[in-house]
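Comment on the following before class.
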Amino acid sequence: MSVVSPWDGLHFLSPRVLRCPDAYARSGTKNLIYHFEDCALDTDRRELRREGSLLSVEPKVFDLLVHLIGHRERVVSKDDLIGAVWNGRIVSESTLASCINAARNALGDSGEEQRFIKTLPRKGIRFVGAVREEKGHSDIVPPHGLVEATRPALTLPDKPSIAVLPFTDMTGDPQHEYFSDGITEDIITALSRLRWFFVIARNSTFIYKGQAADVRQVGRDLGVRYVLEGSVRKSGQRVRITSQLLDAMTGNHIWSDRYDRELTDIFALQDEITASVAAAIEPKLLAAEGLRAETRSTDDLDAWSLVARALSHFWKLTAGESAAAITILRNAVQNHPNYAPAHSMLASALLFSAYVGWMPPGSNRQLASQLAHRAAELDDSDPWAHVALGLLAVTGRQTEEAIRHLTAALDLNPNFATAYGFIGFTLCLDGQSEEALRHFEQAMRMSPRDPFNSLFIGSMATAHYMAGRYEEAVKLARKAAQLRPGAPHPQRILCASLAQAGQLEEAKDALSALRQLQPGISVAWIRQSVPYTPAPMAHFLEGMRKAGLTE
């Protein structure tokens, strides 16, 4: 039996087949005109008139009014509204309040008067106007038996939207479903911490449990661009968990992974899988969004799309791509001055570009500071704002301050692989090699294909260098340089590592290659721009001088 989502709106039916003959009536999809004072709301034509004039009303505002009027006999809670109007998707308090205020304004009401929409503190809201109902223009009575109603595709949100379908339990034992359900719920919770994304709540996605769902239909049902699905298999004390991310618009495959584990501590295993999936999905979705944005003119892009497009350039880690990313981000900040991610990403790009050597030493540092602090003011719950503040601190050689901000980012999103990596970056610049390596390993275990991994591999080389393990440093520096051949920073640690390992000819060749990438490289530039603390700085410069670098 197909199941109707409990969060379906009042005037829409589920797109699936309804077998209950009076489900149509119970859904609230009645062709009615509600009259109250000088207003008339037509549910069939989706029109709101006041004093005979047709008003322009946002779809969500109209849905909210229909729900409130249709349930005017009781107080409607926040959860009721989210379920009916937003299909159970996660929305902020400010979004809900804005929608209620817009509904009041459309009716000529206000938060002070509350003639129609009354707020009951800690209870909810209720429509209190006197209402007269009139049959609408096409009062359709559904036939007895099966009824099919097609629901219009929901408008996609203005940021990446994702639904996590219940992971399929393939053990064949219903008693084990708690494990697959638990993983699904944990992943939904983890993804909801990612401020980039619009995540559908559990109540809406679990209606697909036990059904063979077409991802494109799921995308239309729930108004999402991406769908994550997976399965759980058990054999003895081993469990295999697979997951895959799909584009719900095209059905195309974006990412997949498989996890084979011993089934010992169930909760620890759920935590591990959740962290791995959530950490891996973030960069994959950002990359997918960046590719989509590249096909459109920047003049046509919204704030989120501008940031996604900028990241697709920046992750390539070349001077030209970095400059392109910064130009796009400047545009995003100028056109969307209250959008926190644009500020935090521009601050990070400016700071990193100066560290790498693509910008003059210290250039734009004051601007980066203003942007990072502004990002935190706009949205203190955005982990990327704290990453920007952390980068500001580490490039100012303030190790403890940097760790504090990056730890705050992890508090907001424990599955934030990039924050783990930047903590490692901060620690290796301070000579705390072993602790730095633990953070790098955590970051790369959580997100093994992360676009920042070339930076973290190069920084792992630095950690080994500072610990005197020069051969290991050479190996990792070469790997980082191969991953991003246009970036100077892995080439710098390669020069120093080769020299300290006694491979002086190779070190001189590496220095020659470095000068091709960074013609102005010198001991003085490193002192000014590479944020080592004093002891690591002396150690690094010793290697660079052995390689042939001059003042």
Q: What stands out?
A: The chain has a mean pLDDT of 80. Residues 218 and 248 are 7 Å apart (CA to CA). The first helix runs from residue 23 to 26. The two ends are 77 Å apart (CA to CA).
